[in-house]
Amino acid sequence: MIQGLAIGVLAAGLLLGAWTGIHAYRRRPTTDAQMVGAIVLEAALLVQTAIAIGKLVGGAELDESVTFVAYSIGILLPLPLGFYLARIERTRWGSLSLCFTAVVVAVMTLRLMQLWQAGSG
Amino acid sequence: MADLSETGRDTADPTEDDSPPTGPRRLLISLYAIFALAATARGIVQIATKFDEAPVAYALSLFSGVVYICATIGLLTNRRWSRPLAWAAVGTEMVGVVTIGIASIIDADVFPHDTVWSRFGAGYGYVPVILPVLGLMWLWQTRGTTEQHPTAR
Fold first, then answer.
1. In sequence order, what are the residues at sequence separation of 6 or more whose Cβ sits closer than 8 angstroms to the Cβ of residue B42?
2. Does the ipTM exceed 0.90?
3. Residue B122: inside a domain, yes or no?
4. In angstroms, what separates the C-alpha of A104 from chain B's closest C-alpha?
5. What is the total count of domains within chain B?
6. Is B135 domain-assigned?
7. B136: closest CA among B79, B93, B97?
8. In B, which residues are within 8 Å of A70 by CB distance?
9. Does residue B27 lie in a domain region?
């Protein structure tokens, strides 16, 4: 894992969560900009997962490598779900769905960082 | 963008044959789907890698995952069995999170390893204890809608 990228993903997840959360609070559906943000974040997650698994294959040692890989792949799933729900549900509830999934991504990133540091530290 | 603001759920795809209200249900689906994934994956990893350490806790992880999957399916589908399934799954979850929450505090020996429901889901930001309450509230508030919308079975 790359620390900078992970922190960026973490911040982006929280930011997207806050942004869509405010929209949900204001009873608004998600905007196009938010949807683009979700796609960009998902792309960053894909890059991060590819790098992390590449490093693991390349010989990085982790205490809980199975859990780490499960998280690395699992982290790719929430955003597409939130994105899909935000698209079909053009109300505040769609915003709240994307908000929740974005925060989940941030939390999972934090967990990934912990697992990585515990193994390589 | 501005043209998308304040649009009601009547702008949703008319081919969707969901029973109203769809909004809160879809949020619940996202919540349950994530927890179904989290708990099931956790249970599988725990059982596959270190089942002997705490068989009860790890079996429970997988069980809670299955319960979340059932709840997700119950909320997602619109069949005759959907609502009973959702009621049963969310009810089981409510009982589970309270029972395991109390048990994990009183008798830490049985649950030395965390599950999704340990300490009322503290490891997951207490969402596991809030989730069944939201689920039961939604099921309660929308009860009878299937009778009013027979096509929604």
1. B61, B65, B116
2. no
3. yes
4. 8
5. 1
6. yes
7. B93
8. 41, 45
9. no
* DSSP assignment of A66-110: HHHHHHHHHTTSHHHHHHHHHHH--SHHHHHHHHHHHHHHHHHHH
Q: How many domains does chain A have?
A: 1
**B45: contact with A, CB 8 A cutoff:** yes
- Is B53 a member of any domain? yes
Task: Decide if B8 and A91 are in contact by the 8 Å CB cutoff.
Answer: yes
Domain that holds residue A111: 3-120
Shortest distance between the Cα of A58 and any Cα of chain B, in A, equals 22
> What range defines the domain where residue B64 resides?
38-144
Q: What is the pLDDT of residue B125?
A: 85
Q: Which two tokens stand for residue B113?
A: 């390893």
Cβ of B12 and A77 within 8 Å? no
- Determine the pLDDT at residue B153: 40
Instruction: State the pTM of this model.
Output: 0.82
Mutate: best of B5, B27, B37, partner A, most A CBs <10 A? B27
State the nearest Cα–Cα gap between B92 and chain A, in angstroms. 23
CB atoms A74 and B30 under 8 Å: no
The Cα–Cα gap between A49 and A65 comes to: 13
CATH number, residue A70: 1.20.120
Q: Mean pLDDT in runs of 10 for chain B (153 residues)?
A: 43 47 85 92 88 84 94 91 94 93 81 77 88 93 63 43
For residue B110, the model assigns a pLDDT of 65
